[in-house]
């Protein structure tokens, strides 16, 4: 070891001596490096050293580029010109494969289809939604906790014990009692893992995979929701299938939100995953900090004019947080044996990671 | 890594298909051009309303005076001109029966191609069947000029006492018809005498003593052996072959996947059939052995409601709840093209009288002329088509000229697919 170290030290000394030479040789060595990839070097120490150096170089270059870009922007702003347009990053979403099933606002068939579908009576406020929530046969632990939170999220929802009833019997019962939808929370190994939303009396049945469930008590600084009817946000349900799923979800909630309650329920679709969030929001008026800092002179000069009040929205998360993924959409009510599917996922449909169905 | 295979769609030879959807719209899809035309929606008839939902449709694509019959949810049966969508006759069901159209919708409709001997030359015969088993035959005077016409000579009978009828089919000679449904065994009727000539018997209980209730969802006559053989699909994903001359129980039955069979179509002059099920699987099966020849793979995600075989070209069309109309090559089982039609589709039919672009345009302009030109265009079509048919198999090294060859090939195919179809083969044995 010692000998080696000495040697390396010696090398360093040598290197210092030869620095000038090195500088001359740098161009040549760079060219060499371009040809020799670090993976081609057999000595591990050498290889890692070369690799680290390359990486560092890249990092430095990137930083330079960023600095140059920022400087150019700043200069443009100072000169009062338009800053150069920011580059938009290429994401999977914005390079999504073109899909002919995406809904268009000028499509008259879409609206005619909306009028004709199973949810139109609820969504046109013909009747109020009434939801029955039940579970699979065996549930414990997080299942009931999740259901109690669902009950607080969805207005006019009622929990019924599953008992040993068949789901088809429950559907019949719910039809008789004028329920408009059934939600079944399926648990596996004491963990909710699937959600079944059934439209009644003849609406479709959507089967979702449920994951990433975080209950209210596990959310830091969570709020407690009020009993007001929440507002509903449905994001990115673009295709015809997505539109239908969106309408199914929409039909779970009353269509007249109470804005006093300042409660929002969000279903955000991104890459076929539907993210559920439940928030409370508040509008606060604050004096903007910038005016304070520049402050006092200006205040003297312009007196009350600077009391620019900025409205800030603050969010507080409350209620559960989970992610849904559509597994299948079935025509008619729940029927595993004789059901007709409107959409089922099949492996041959995964032709690209830039192809989405919702 | 996800699979990144792209399905290339070669396009279709010139053809014309009509689809019927749940909003009552009729869409005309045409593919044009000699090689690999992309089918497009050319026309749309009707205004979208849920009560117009098409339940059944039947086309008579003869060269002179083609007609299209469409049964709707609100009890109306329209007879249209398939060339330009003009309404010829509208028959309301409420006239002859007091039942509500909602709970007694028409499930089977057949427009007879041949003229019934007793009727005059201008009249057509229509067979309808409702879910409650009221079958009726009526002849309709179709006048050329306008929608004013009369329907008369109603001959009606009850197919079943209880249960609901799911389908009715008429064989190629148009003398016999087939009914079946939920709680109704398949039965064959002689249409001339209006009497039941044959009823199926349910298969025996299985080894556990469990009896599955009858629920037929679709059927098709095998055209190779006139009316005696037919195939029926059941709700518990079974496909059964019946032979009326042999026995009342199925001659053969096999299972196909896990969801109910929703559509069955036959291949003319062959023992192959096409079956489509509730989760969007479409397959072709040799019905003599019950062996799966192969599946039609192409991102089909919704239940298949209807399969149609093109009368001359080797093409089938399938449509269903995923609102796509798909054209498939029957030899290579490749997707030729898919058209998105926005609604849940209930029926698809081919219009074989369609030949080429110019003719179609002429037809759109002057439907009257088309009727006279009809003969010529048909001849053109028959002249051009065989050439294509010859070309296609040579490319794929799949010339099926003799039956023996075909058999060999099918064996090869089977051996290829053996592992896949193993489950099905086992089921055949049982």
From TrEMBL, chain A:
UniProt feature, compositional bias: Basic and acidic residues: 16-29, 287-307
Stretches the record annotates as Disordered: 1-74, 287-308
Biased composition (Basic residues): 49-67
GO terms for MF: rRNA primary transcript binding
Pfam families according to UniProt: Brix
One of the protein's GO biological processes: maturation of 5.8S rRNA
Brix domain span: 129-335
A single GO cellular-component term on record: preribosome, large subunit precursor
Domain of life: Eukaryota
This protein's name: Brix domain-containing protein
UniProtKB/TrEMBL annotation, chain B:
InterPro entries: Quinoprotein_ADH-like_sf, WD40/YVTN_repeat-like_dom_sf, WD40_repeat_CS, WD40_rpt, WDR74/Nsa1
Residues covered by region (Disordered): 370-430
Compositional bias per record (Basic and acidic residues), positions renumbered to this chain: 386-398
SUPFAM superfamilies hit by this protein: Quinoprotein alcohol dehydrogenase-like
WD repeat residues: 297-338
SMART domains reported in the protein's UniProt record: WD40
Keywords assigned: Repeat, WD repeat
Listed GO biological process terms: ribosomal large subunit biogenesis
PROSITE patterns recorded: WD_REPEATS_1, WD_REPEATS_2
CC terms in the record's Gene Ontology section: nucleolus; preribosome, large subunit precursor
Full protein name: Uncharacterized protein
Species this chain originates from: Citrus clementina
């Amino acid at each position: 070891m010692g000998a080696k170290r000495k040697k390396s030290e010696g090398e360093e000394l040598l290197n210092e001596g030869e620095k000038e030479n090195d500088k001359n040789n740098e161009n040549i060595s760079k060219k060499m490096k371009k040809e020799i990839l670090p993976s081609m070097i057999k000595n591990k120490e050498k290889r890692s050293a070369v690799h680290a150096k390359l990486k560092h170089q890249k990092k430095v270059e990137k930083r330079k580029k960023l600095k140059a870009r920022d400087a150019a922007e700043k200069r443009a702003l100072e000169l009062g010109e338009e800053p150069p347009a920011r580059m938009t990053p290429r994401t999977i979403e914005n390079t999504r494969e073109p899909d002919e099933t995406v809904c268009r606002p000028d499509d008259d068939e879409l609206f005619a289809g909306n009028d004709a579908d199973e949810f139109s009576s609820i969504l046109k406020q013909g009747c109020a939604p009434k939801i029955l929530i039940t579970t699979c046969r065996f549930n414990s632990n997080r299942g009931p906790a999740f259901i109690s939170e669902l009950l607080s999220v969805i207005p006019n929802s009622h929990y019924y014990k599953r008992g040993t009833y068949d789901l088809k019997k429950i559907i019949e019962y719910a039809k008789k009692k004028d329920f408009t939808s059934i939600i079944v929370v399926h648990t596996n190994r004491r963990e909710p893992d699937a959600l079944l939303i059934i439209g009644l009396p003849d609406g479709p049945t959507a089967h979702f995979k449920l994951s990433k469930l975080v209950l209210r008590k596990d959310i830091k600084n969570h709020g407690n929701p009020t009993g007001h009817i929440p507002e509903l946000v449905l994001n990115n349900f673009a295709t015809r299938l997505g539109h239908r799923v969106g309408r199914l979800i929409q039909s779970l909630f009353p269509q007249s939100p109470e804005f006093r309650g300042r409660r929002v329920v969000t279903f955000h679709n991104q890459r076929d995953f539907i993210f559920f969030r439940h928030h409370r929001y508040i509008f606060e008026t604050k004096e903007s900090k910038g005016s304070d800092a520049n402050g006092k002179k200006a205040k003297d000069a312009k007196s009350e004019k600077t009391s620019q009040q900025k409205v800030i929205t603050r969010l507080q998360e409350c209620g559960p947080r989970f992610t849904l993924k559509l597994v299948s959409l079935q025509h008619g009510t729940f029927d595993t044996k004789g059901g007709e599917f409107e959409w089922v996922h099949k492996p041959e449909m995964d032709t690209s990671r830039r192809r989405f169905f919702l | 890594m996800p699979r990144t295979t792209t399905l290339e769609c070669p396009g279709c030879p010139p053809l014309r298909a009509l689809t019927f959807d749940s909003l009552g719209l009729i869409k005309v899809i045409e593919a044009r051009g000699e090689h690999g035309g992309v089918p497009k929606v050319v026309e749309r008839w009707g205004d979208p309303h849920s009560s117009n939902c098409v339940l059944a449709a039947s086309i008579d694509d003869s060269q002179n005076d083609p007609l299209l019959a469409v049964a709707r949810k609100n009890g109306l049966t329209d007879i249209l001109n398939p060339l330009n969508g003009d309404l010829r006759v509208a028959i309301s069901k409420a006239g002859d029966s007091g039942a509500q159209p909602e709970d007694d919708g028409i499930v089977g409709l057949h427009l007879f191609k041949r003229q019934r001997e007793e009727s005059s030359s201008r009249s057509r015969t229509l067979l309808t069947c409702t879910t409650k088993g009221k079958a009726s035959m009526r002849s309709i005077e179709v006048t050329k000029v306008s929608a004013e016409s009369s329907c008369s000579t109603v001959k009606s009978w009850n197919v079943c006492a209880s249960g609901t009828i799911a389908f009715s089919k008429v064989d190629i000679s148009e003398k016999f018809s087939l009914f079946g449904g939920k709680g109704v065994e398949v039965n064959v009727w002689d249409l001339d005498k209006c009497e039941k000539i044959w009823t199926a018997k349910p298969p025996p209980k299985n080894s556990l003593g469990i009896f599955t209730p009858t629920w037929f969802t679709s059927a098709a006559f095998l055209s190779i052996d006139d009316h005696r053989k037919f195939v029926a699909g059941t709700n518990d994903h079974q496909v059964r072959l019946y032979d009326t001359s042999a026995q009342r129980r199925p001659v053969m039955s096999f299972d196909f996947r896990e969801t109910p069979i929703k559509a069955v179509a036959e291949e003319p002059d062959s023992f192959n059939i096409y079956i489509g099920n509730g989760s969007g699987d479409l397959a072709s099966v040799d019905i003599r052995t019950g062996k799966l020849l192969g599946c039609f793979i192409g991102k089909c995600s919704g239940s298949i409601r209807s399969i149609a075989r093109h009368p001359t070209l080797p093409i089938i069309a399938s449509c269903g709840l995923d609102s796509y109309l798909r054209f498939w090559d029957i030899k290579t089982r490749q997707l030729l093209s898919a058209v998105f039609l926005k609604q849940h589709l209930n029926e698809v039919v081919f219009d074989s009288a369609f030949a080429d672009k110019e003719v179609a345009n002429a037809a759109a302009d002057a439907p009257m002329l088309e009727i006279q030109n009809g003969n010529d265009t048909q001849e053109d079509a028959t002249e051009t088509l065989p050439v294509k048919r010859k070309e296609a198999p040579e490319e794929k090294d799949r010339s099926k000229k003799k039956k023996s060859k075909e058999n060999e090939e099918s064996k090869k195919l089977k051996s290829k697919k053996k592992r896949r179809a193993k489950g099905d083969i086992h089921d055949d044995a049982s």
